[in-house]
TrEMBL record:
Domain of life of the organism encoding this protein: Bacteria
SUPFAM superfamilies: PilZ domain-like
Protein name according to UniProt: PilZ domain-containing protein
Organism per entry: Leptospira montravelensis
Biased composition (Acidic residues): 393-406
InterPro entries to which the protein is assigned, alphabetical: PilZ_domain (IPR009875)
Disordered, as annotated region: 354-406
Annotated ranges, domain PilZ: 267-346
Length: 406
């Protein structure tokens, strides 16, 4: 099936329904790389990428219901540091094929297993309730932090505030050396101009000129809160590194309380690629709670002895195999570290490319059928949409954590 959409309304319908709600990739030199979708604003897509391109043309892709959507854009603006505003030109739709090499578990001598599965919805729910162990840990860390930095705080809640939501969108920590000197800012951290908008709407006194704010994350993916330090004089990189280590310690100790109900099942891996995985899961209680079609899960993937990565993925299919279930999962915006480890591992067992994902790809369909409400992923209705650019969006992407369909 090949189809092309040039109608502006049809293009916008596809982008609104799929981009920002499914794993998206950007094409560069004939290869596809994960791309961060920040928002859809004024009929333009806002993205964050560190890649360099030879022209203003951009192609972004997503896979949905056995179809691959290739959206062609032109760069209309940006900040020159990775943030780009893209205006759509057309969308091509073809049959989806597997991206990259795949390793069958039988091809290599390794004990690849999946463990510690948890649904991302359950991560947020877990910190929405009072827990004495978690409260005790936070109290101890707050006491320790204020002794070193009197003007500091720890925000931790099941619902994001505006500061955390924007750090989540940009996937960058806040490190403002001097709020009144833009020349002190670097592209490695939260955008300087965007920070000024946050500051203006906050209750922080004007005497404070420096801020460090580092998210507290569940295994590097789900934002739970943040550690914030304010100062009237410039803070330096050494202090930032200390706060970064501190935030990681808070996350580690909270996870160790067991407040997050990870599955104890050990699941055998059947095949693995840079884009996804399939594994066997027994019909246990944790399976029915965590593994749902189109749900987003986190899990540990043990590649071989001493080598493990944490994976975030969307469940694309669940097949009943009499005594067990085979689960197919598409990876979703993995961290650079996990991607690097995974890529090195897969280099040792390359398999055939170009294998069609669906045995029976969809026949010619209308745009409405391809991105129907029934088949489109659902974004959490309880999330408050944020506007990173301080303006009203035509269609907002409130979170990059797709939730399961009800």
């Amino acid at each position: 099936m090949d189809k092309e959409i040039k109608d502006p309304d049809g293009i916008l319908k596809v982008i609104t329904a799929l981009f920002g709600k499914l794993p998206a990739y950007i094409v560069n030199l004939d290869k596809e790389y994960p791309v961060k979708i920040i928002a859809l604003k004024n009929k333009a897509l806002v993205i964050n990428t560190n890649l360099k391109f030879p022209s203003r043309d951009r192609i972004l892709t997503v896979v949905h219901n056995g179809s691959k959507f290739l959206a062609h854009f032109l760069v209309a603006g940006g900040d020159g540091n990775g943030i780009e505003i893209l205006t759509p030109v057309k969308i091509q739709i073809t049959a989806a094929t597997r991206q990259g090499s795949r390793v069958e578990a039988s091809q290599i001598q390794t004990g690849m297993v999946v463990s510690n599965i948890i649904n991302v919805n359950d991560v947020s729910k877990a910190i929405g309730f009072d827990d004495k162990k978690v409260d005790a840990i936070l109290l101890a860390y707050r006491t320790k932090l204020t002794k070193a930095f009197p003007l500091s705080s720890i925000f931790f809640a099941g619902r994001m505030d505006n500061r955390l939501r924007l750090m989540h969108h940009y996937d960058k920590d806040i490190f403002i050396i001097d709020r009144k000197e833009k020349s002190t800012a670097t592209a490695d951290f939260f955008p300087f101009d965007e920070y000024l908008r946050i500051f203006e709407s906050s209750k922080i006194a004007d005497s404070f000129t420096s801020e460090i704010c580092v998210p507290i994350k569940y295994k590097g993916y789900v934002h739970l809160g943040y550690v914030q330090v304010l100062a009237e004089k410039p803070l330096d990189l050494e202090i930032y590194k200390q706060i970064q280590t501190f935030a990681n310690a808070v996350s580690r100790d909270i996870i160790s309380t067991g407040v997050f109900q990870e599955s104890r099942d050990i699941c055998q891996v059947m095949d693995l690629s840079m884009g996804g995985i399939s594994f066997i899961h027994a019909p246990s209680r944790s399976f029915s709670r965590s593994v749902t079609l189109n749900g987003t899960i986190l899990f540990d993937l043990n590649l071989e002895e001493g080598k493990r990565v944490t994976i975030r993925g969307i469940i694309k299919n669940i097949r009943n195999q009499e005594t067990n279930f085979r689960v197919g999962c598409q990876f979703y915006n993995l961290t650079e570290k996990d991607l690097e480890i995974l890529g090195e591992f897969l280099d040792a067992g390359k398999a055939e490319e170009g294998e069609v994902i669906e045995q029976n790809p969809p026949q010619e369909s209308s745009t409405e059928e391809l991105v129907s409400e029934e088949n489109s992923p659902v974004v959490g209705a309880d999330e408050e949409p944020g506007d990173p650019f301080g303006e009203t969006m035509d269609s907002e992407f409130p979170s990059d954590e797709p939730t399961q369909e009800s």
